[in-house]
Amino acid sequence: MIKTMVKRSGVEEDFDPSKLNGWGEWAAKSIGKHVDWTSVVMDTVSVCPKKCSTQELQDRLIQTCLDNNSWSYYLMAGRLYASKIYKDIFGASTPNKTIKEVQQTLVKDGLMEKMSYSDEEYEELEKVINHSLDLKEPHFALHQIRKKYSLQNKVTKKEYESAQFVYMRMAMSLAEDQPSERRMEDIKKFYKYFSEKKINAPTPNYVNLGTPHRGFASCCVYKAGDNAKSLAIGDHIAYVMTYMSAGIGSFIQTRSLKDAVRGGSIEHQGKLPYFRSLEKAVAANTQNGRGGAATTYFSAYDPEVETIIPLKNPMSTEDKKIRGIDYAMQMNTAFAKKVARDENIFLFNVKTAPDLTAAMFNGDIKLFEELYEKYENDESFKKVYIKARDILINEINESYETGRAYLAWVDEMNRHTPHKDPIYQSNLCLELSQPTSEYSDMMDLYSTEDHGRGEVSMCSLGGIIPSNISSQEEYEDVAYYTLLMIDKCIHRSHYELPHVGVTAKARMNAGVGLIGVAHYLAKNHVMYGSPEGKRLVHELSEKHAYSVIKASLRLGKELGNAPWIHKTKWVEGWLPIDTYKKTVDSVVDSTLLLDWEGLRKEIVENGGIRNSSLINHMPSESSSKASATTNGVYPIRQLAILKTDESNTVYWAAPDAEKLSKWYPSAWNISTKDMVDTYAIIQKFSDQSISADEYRVLEDDETVGTDEIISNYLYMTKMGMKTRYYLNTKTSSSIHSENGVEIEEDNPDDCASCKL
User: How far is residue 373's CA from residue 530's CA, in Å, rounded to a whole number?
Assistant: First the structure.
């Protein structure tokens, strides 16, 4: 039993149980019947020493709440934790500093830039900031913002910002250069949508807005061509963009082992030396204390395909192992047909069949098949055959072994798209579908001119949380401010490679995804993967796409269309509903609820929209914690889970889990078919791709048969998936738990920015 309390000042006093009871009762206020504050208090007291500091007691009280492993207890812990944050940072139980005072201190200590706001404007914003919103947040949301996103001195451990100050800093920074007649209104809108969890901002925006740092892009995607200079430039891009905090998507399109170089005077070393070089380039610099990350893409038809597939596997021999990067296999519908028929394919590359290679990255599969047949009938073309099924099964087996052998259907990426230029690959996390082209002269990469010789694809991300939005009108406004945020970040970013900035501002590529889909479905009392759930996902995806496209049109009218919008089909009135895979209609009623034809007419009249790319769906592993919701478009794994990365652990629970538990099916209990159906519905309305995960339980010594592998793959192809990301497996050996709660570890090779 506690006898003596030691206050923060060092003063000792007798323990007063009524004060602790007061804390418990206050923390449980308004949460409801799912918490018992008296039990929390009693359990806390039972483990405390006789002499206890107020800080220790508060920490123990919070931990007791967390040990109950439920949403409601995490809300109770959040109220206690908010008070602790205020005490730790401001020395008071509520924030006792103004926005101006906090920002002045940050500027003085070199962590923030001075913004051009008057005293009167600061006073007006002081009436807007609402610290009481912190008291409605679960512990994990406040903890994520405190540990990951607030500005602080990592050496001295000095802290400055509670959550609402973070949101206000971001809002003020984004609106600073807005026209004077509207910038205060824009600040209020940004702040409202951040603080009320309607806009899900990416990590670079949280940590860099308002600071001297100008790295806002989440993803960098580049292609290296089949010559020595281009290959070297590719490594340079990966190296530089890693230290600029971007995740890397790489496509090294070069010839294969023992191909002729310089007319046959040299034998090519193959792709492995270039993969090793890429691995070193991204590992040379760190991002938030860890190395960078890259996914590199390779063709299923590549002569080295059998060597490349197992490179990630720890059981491979040292000379055939490159584990520091991830790999994604490029395929097309012609390959899927060969798999279905159990036929052989012949192997080729950019050196041996350049026109066939080019046709692979084309939305017209008939063109590829015609050229393929031409080469097949050409006896002078040396051919090496391999069973298509062997390639596929080896690739999927690597997915089961490592979780990290990815798939990319490049013909679908080039068919269901607004882009006219070829799309060769996706990014680190497989949600992008944007054009790239190789550089062959380093000076072109450092040019500030629009010379047309090379393009690195950049993407700035943002997310929308539909479960917190009340109407179509509000959804459209949230979409507008999400795109305005991205717009500001594209133009404010510092581009270490100048030509990357030229093409980024010419394309104006954005990626706006759905966040918290599992919560949205549960809140509406339908289950993920059910027929009702699929219909609701269709309605939500339609609302999302319509709102984001309409927001880009609005921005185009205000600020001008993307300079390269003529390189897209938006100018012709293209919409995602025009080119989606019609097999989706067999899964869900295809009735559209919004005025797409009216939107199309406006786009044509306006000559296009503000952004070349608009909609993709990213994992949002990091930021969904800060937004107190579920990951991206994924189902939950279980109602409560410990999520951990290399520097932070949070006690996460599904929102309103006690009330909505029956509407939260586990990802492990949803069939692959139902997962693919859901992704396909979302893909219907997305001009880019999805970080689409699979989930499979492997009990005891169960193995996955080839029939299942082939069937799942062909169904994904049939339904128009563009990419497949992680293949998550649950086995008895893979489950780690603490106090009966499963621990989910973040992938240490992911970059924070690509997790949104």
Answer: 42
- Calpha distance 133→196 (Å, rounded): 8
| Alpha-carbon dihedral 299, 304, 307, 308, rounded to 10 degrees | -30
Which phi and psi angles does 233 have, rounded to 5°? Answer: -65, -35
Q: What is the DSSP letter of 270?
A: -
Residues in CB range of 122: below 8 A, 6 or more apart: 98, 99, 100
Q: So what's the pLDDT on residue 711?
A: 98
Q: Which residues contact 53 (CB under 8 A, 6 or more apart)?
A: 5, 6, 7, 8
Q: Which helix (H) or strand (E) holds 529?
A: none
- Strand order of the β-sheet with 12-14 is 12-14, 4-6, 51-53
Name the DSSP letter for residue 145. Answer: I
Alpha-carbon distances, residue 76 vs 68, 139, 410, 684 (angstroms) = 11, 8, 48, 40
* In the block, residue with structure tokens 């944007």: 434
Give the whole-angstrom CA distance, residue 665 versus residue 372.
45
CB atoms within 10 A of CB 335: 25
Residue 5 forms beta bridges with which residues?
A: 13, 52
Residue found under tokens 């406040």: 142
3 state SS of 434: coil
Name 52's bridge partners.
5
Q: Identify residue 115 by its one-letter amino acid code.
A: M
Query: In angstroms, rounded to a whole number, what is the distance separating the alpha carbons of residues 408 and 330?
Result: 5
**If you compute the radius of gyration of the chain from its CA atoms, what whole number of angstroms results?**
27
Residues 6 or more apart in contact with residue 270 via CB below 8 angstroms: 256, 257, 258, 304, 307
Torsion of CA 42, 48, 52, 55, to 10 degrees: -70
Closest CA to 581 of 696, 720, 694, 675: 720
- 678 near 609, Cβ under 8 Å? no
Q: How far is CA 148 from CA 165, 245, 318, in A?
A: 14, 15, 36
Encode pLDDT of 23-55 as tens digits: 999 999 989 899 999 999 999 999 999 999 999
Return the number of other C-beta atoms located less than 10 Å from residue 219's C-beta. Answer: 29
CA–CA distance, 44 with 36 (Å, rounded to integer): 13
Reported as a single tens digit per residue, the pLDDT across 468-525 is: 999 999 999 999 999 999 999 999 999 999 999 999 999 999 999 999 999 999 999 9
Distance of alpha carbon 131 from alpha carbon 133, whole angstroms:
5
pLDDT in tens, 279-338: 999 999 876 655 689 999 999 999 999 999 999 999 999 999 999 999 999 999 999 999
- Reference 636, options 672, 670, 662, 666; nearest CA is 666
Cβ atoms of 69 and 740 closer than 8 Å = yes
DSSP H helical ranges for 176-270: 183-195, 203-208, 228-243
Global pTM reads 0.96
Phi, psi of 141 (to 5 degrees): -70, -45
Could you tell me if 435 and 453 are in contact, meaning their C-beta atoms sit under 8 angstroms apart?
no
Q: Residue 295 has which token pair? A: 């996914």
| Residue 698 identity | L
End-to-end CA distance of the chain: 46
Q: Phi and psi for 73 in degrees, rounded to 5? A: -70, -30
Token pair belonging to 124: 């007006």
Give the count of beta carbons closer than 10 Å to the beta carbon of residue 703. Answer: 9
Query: DSSP letter string over 102-119?
Result: HHHHHHHTTSSPPP---H
CB atoms within 10 A of CB 218: 32
Enumerate long-range contacts of 491-494, CB under 8 Å, 24 or more apart. 492/214, 492/216, 493/214, 493/215, 493/216, 493/217, 493/460, 494/214, 494/215, 494/244
The tokens for 81 are 């934790």
Give me the torsion for CA of 30, 31, 33, 36, rounded to 10°. Answer: -110
